[in-house]
Amino acid sequence: MLELKNLNVKINEKSIINNLNLKINDGEIHVLMGPNGAGKSTISQAIFNNPLYQISGQIIFNDERIDNLEPNEIANKGLFLLNQNPIEIEGITNAELLRTILSDREEKTIDIFKFNKKMESICKNLDIDRKFIHREINLGMSGGEKKKNELLHLWMLEPKFIILDEIDSGLDVDALKTVTSSINEYYKQYKPSILIITHQVKLLDYIKPDYVHVLQNGSIVANGDKSLAKKIEKEGFYQFKSANIVSEDNASE
Amino acid sequence: MQVNNIIIDNDLTSLNSNEYNIIYQNKTTIINIMGKVYINDFSNNLNQQNLTINLKENSSLIYNKYSNQNLEDYQLTINSSDNTEFKLNFSVIAKKPLNININNLIKGNNNASTIRLRIIGEQDVNAIVSAQVLKNTKNNTILEDLKGLNVYAKKIAIHPELLIASEDVVANHLMTISNIDNNELFSLMSKGLSKTQAINLLQKGFIYAIQPDIIKNK
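Above: the input entities. Below: the C-alpha cells describing the complete assembly.
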C-alpha cells in the first residue's frame, strides 16, 4: 500500500534520510525504531511532503506517487499523521476543522445532527468531555488530552493509513492505555495500515506490530519481527551503531 | 444578566449593570459606565468613530468590538477612576487604510486594564495603544496584548505605549506582527484542508480568538 523507494530527505542541505526503502502492505503494522536523532520523525514529515524538507526518491501510495502532492492531497488519499507534539491552534475549534474537511470531502453540507452524535460517541470512548468538540484545537490541553484530541480527528476522518509519531511521549500509564486501546479498536474496525515511530519498546506491549525496522543515521540497519524489539530492549540501539544492513525474515521487503 | 439591544444616537449615554448589544449612529459618543457592564459593539458601518468611556468608581466593563468593513479612523479614550476593571477585545480586518488610537487614562487607584487587539491588514494600518497612569496613584495593573497578522504584505504599524508616572503599578505589553505560522498551516493541511481553506481558517481563528460567541455568530 505505501512504499518508500530510495528516499532521501534533507533539511537546510543537511542529509537526514539516506536511500531508505520500506514497503507497508494493507493492514500491516510496522514499527520504525531508532535512537534520538536517527531521523524517524523526518520520515513522517517527508511522507506528508512538509515543505521544510527537501525530498528525492519516490513515495508511492496505492500505486500512485504522492511525493509531489500537497499535504492536504496526501491526507485526502487516506493518510493520517498523529504527531508527537500536536500543534495548538487558537481560535479554530475541532468541530469547525472537521466540519470543513468532511463537507469539502463529501462535496455537500454535512448532517450536523449525525456529525455531533458521532463526535459525542467518540469523546465518550476516548474518555474526554464532550466539550472537546467545541474546544480550540489542542489549545491549553495536557499532553494526554492532545493525543486524545488528535484521536478524535482520526476517528472522524477514518484514514486508511496511520502514522503514529512518538505517540507515547508525554503520556502517563493510564493515558497510554486509553490511547493505544483506541488505536487497537480502530484497527479492529477499519484494518488500516499503521506505521509506528518510536524509541520506546514499551509501546509495543500495547500495539502488536507485524514488522520492526531499526533506523540509524538515516538508514534502515535492521529488519525483523517483535523479537527484534525485545533484543533492542535488552541490548539497546548501540549494537547497530556500525552495523551493515541486517535482515531477519522481513516478508514485506 | 439581561441583554439589551440598543441604538445609541445621543452624544452622551449612561449604562448601568447589564449586557448591551450596541449600534452607534453618531461618530462621537461619550458613555458613562456604572456597575458591571458588558458591551458588544456591532456598529460595523461607521468609517469614523470617536468614543470616550468613563468608568465610574467600582465599575467594570468588558467591551467586545469586531469590525470588517469601512472603518478608517477609530479613536477610543477610556478614563478609569478608582476600583475599576476594563477589558477591551477589539478585532479588526482593515479593508481600508486604518488609524487606531486607543488611550487608557488611569487617574485613580486599584484599576485593572487589559487591552487586546487583533488586526488583519488588507490595507495599511497604524495603531497607537497607550496606557497612562498618573502620579500618586496606587495598585494599578495594565496589560496590552497586541497582535497583527500581515498576510497581504501591507504596512502594519502597532505602537504600544506605557506612560507611567506612578511607582506602584504593573504594566506590561506583548506585541507581535507576523504572517501565518507555517507549522499551523502544515498541521491543518495535513488533516485535509487546502492551503486556501487553511489560511482562511487561520485568519478567522486569529481574529475571533478573543471574541465571545455572540460576536462570532453575528
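Note for the figure: Chain A touches chain B at residues 48, 50-52, 70-72, 74-76, 80-81, 83, 86-87, 89-92, 96-97, 100-101, 104-105, 136, 153, 157 (CB under 8 Å).
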